[in-house]
Amino acid sequence: MKIKAAVVREKAGPFVIEEIELDEPRPDEVLVRIVSSGLCHTDLVARMQFLPIPLPGVFGHEGAGVVEKVGSRVTKVKPGDHVATSYMSCGACLACKKGMPGWCSEFQRLNFGGRREDGTTTMKKGGEVIYGSFFGQSTFATHSLVTEKNVVKVPSDVPLEILSPLGCGIQTGAGGVINSLQAKPGSSIAVFGIGSVGLSAIMAAVVCGCTRIIGVDVLDERLKLAKEFGATDIINSAKVNPVEEIQKMTGGGIEFSLECTGIPKVFRQAVDALMIGGTCGLIGVAPNGVDVSLEMQTILNGRTVKGIVEGDCISDIFIPQLIDLYKQGRFPFDRLLKFYSLDQINEAAEDSEKGRALKAVLKP
User: Fold this and answer.
1) Average pLDDT, stretch 224-246?
2) CATH number, domain 173-308, options 3.40.50.620, 3.40.50.1450, 1.20.272.10, 3.40.50.720
3) DSSP readout, 257-299?
């Protein structure tokens, strides 16, 4: 079928709206008419080719829409259902069988390879291959092919246009606190980097009952938002040493920290701010090959560094939980969103990179 999609044809090049051809769904696939698609930092990293992703390609991995067709083996959803789309996993490796699909041994290939699980492609323009299947979806388009594994049925009484960011960024920030760090009532946490992921983490810390929630950023307007979303304390790390400030506030260090920037200096601060026995979760994405230096004695003294992918979420379970929290008024993630048409995708990308939009959402 003919669809419109935002195609990237060269490293760091613009998104170009083009008419391309999308395959009909195979037996395990679902055709979704996209109502909205979140624009995530990972999409921008992919455009810059920090990861080896084939071009020309269509990105987008936070989708929400309406099912139009399903393959013969699909039983989870049916035409007319409202759905969100999330990341891909193989379902067969040891990590997947243990209920940890974010650690799937095939994660890189299935989410960044530009092809289906069997190596075939889903898009073309005439005789030219257009690489898709980004996170098993490629939702910067009017329609997307996903699999039964990475589509999540969502309630029809919540606006579809707000649900797309739950598929990656927001579930990653919230899941980082709830699932990965397992923050308990009365615990303390510092969130480094107050973007949409960091603010989702702060909202999740409130849900978990953390009694000290510290937001750390270099922008006062972001820190003000952190307070609005539940931070008990804020630190502008451009003006003071955040490690020293956190140690003063807590009497020796924080129980949990979450690094959401991907900047080595900030990661080091997030680790150094921990109390003995504390845990730092690393969410921020850096280009391949970026190193960080940590003091060995700091780690030897019982501190843990934990990498976090997709918030250690099983999307079929966690996305509906976040929607329930939203409906209860306890997780107001919709306040983060700024909407753009698909034709405005380059403006949305620039606004995201320059901090003018917390969470850009495209509406084809």
Assistant:
1) 98
2) 3.40.50.720
3) EEE-S--HHHHHHHHHTEEEEEEEEE-----TT------HHHH
